Amino acid sequence: MSEDRLRYVKVYNFLKNAIINQTYKIGDPIPSENELCHMHSVTRPTVRQALQKLVSEGYILKHQGKGSIVMPPKTGLGILSINSTTQAFNNNEVQTKFLKRPEVQLFNTDFPFQLSENEVKFGCIHFKRIRKLHDKPLLFEETYLPNIDLQGFIDNFSEDKSLFNVLFNHHKIEILGGEQKIWAIQATKEIAEILDIKPTAPVLHLKRKLHTSKNGFFLYSFLYCNTESYYLQGEF
Amino acid sequence: MSEDRLRYVKVYNFLKNAIINQTYKIGDPIPSENELCHMHSVTRPTVRQALQKLVSEGYILKHQGKGSIVMPPKTGLGILSINSTTQAFNNNEVQTKFLKRPEVQLFNTDFPFQLSENEVKFGCIHFKRIRKLHDKPLLFEETYLPNIDLQGFIDNFSEDKSLFNVLFNHHKIEILGGEQKIWAIQATKEIAEILDIKPTAPVLHLKRKLHTSKNGFFLYSFLYCNTESYYLQGEF
DNA sequence: TAATTTAACTTGTAATTACAAGCAAATATA
DNA sequence: TATATTTGCTTGTAATTACAAGTTAAATTA
After folding, report:
1. How many contacts, defined by CB atoms under 8 Å, are there between A and B?
2. Whole-model pTM?
3. Which of A67, A195, B86, B173 has the fewest CB within 10 Å, making it most exposed?
4. Tens-place pLDDT, residues A152-167
């Protein structure tokens, strides 16, 4: 990434890492703008550009006359916002298993989202995963990735890895937003079996199309969630 | 508002109004940064500050080397709209009726969101609405507005008016975001009656806390939605 | 004519300077 | 002592200048 030599990115990365590593803890003040100028040998506009990025991403909060403090990470940003489902539950006790390992195939003709010519032509990488909390099935997710420039994805992606992280680290694809349709449905026999609930039990169903930083590249996922003991939470 | 004399706010307001009034239509380019400088007799950093605010609010999109274009308004930001599974329909056919007219009362002690001292002290304006499409109940919504500085709200708000518009036009309160919890539940007897569905039918249930431009002012709503023929849609 | 180069735009980054405004603690005053 | 005031910090706004980098279209060249 050529952005590495941009000065405001350097300051931004320094602060973001310090926050993530808890060098600056939640509620702590970060160095003042002038201190940061001296630390990195840049001027205030450059420091302010870095700080502004951190504000827009929710890492810090600024107060005129006082300074800037570290903000708690937005937890629970999940299913309904733009974070991976692994982060959504914010819980190490959630286990993810493949019900169907990633496999290249064509999109179904009755795919519920409008597909581009390229998406139809190249087909998709399709897989099914189930997420369990304390060995209890919680969420069943079916994912379709258009098979465009994803060399090595199937080898890089595994049960213990976050889909979003693999896409970002290996393919430089970042999730920016998306659209979703939401239903409450009765569990079909198949879904009931997978989620270990009674058939006809209410199930939360979402069809999602996620937009990415790669032009024309979208990501589709269909979710079925047992909300008897848990609920989905999202911030927006 | 003392911000009126800030130069970047002037440029920002000029552009925002021009976009809302469709002087600059969706997809249109707005004047270049240098043109805006001359138009308002300010320098580029000032113009860029205004543009950046518009970008962060989703009004425009910038492209290095090309310029900035007007973006379609984000209907969602997580605020969900109702769509038909089978056909697209125009919102004109959706009718809203009060099941309980707005009334000042205290918050329940078991209110599912954490309330501030002021919210508990001043109580809330509470009302229940139902939305019907072709006389078929679709959505039941219970709303709680903290009764703080809302003089005249009950008189201004009626069935044919948008809650968000009344809050914005009469009280200068803008919805900025929020958080929501989502369940698929079985309809209770009461909900089934209201939505005219079988008891035990699956119902989409949301509890939402909306954040506003007014410091410390939140808006709470509980939704029950029949998703047999329709679904909720949202962008994020 | 077709491909290439150049020129003229656009936004992006960055240093410099200056003053305004919010905040808190030390200081001066009653 | 209790109340104002000052001082010195913080971030906010804004002009100025300079060059980098992406995009497009006109001009040049083969």
Report:
1. 98
2. 0.75
3. B86
4. 999 999 998 889 888 8
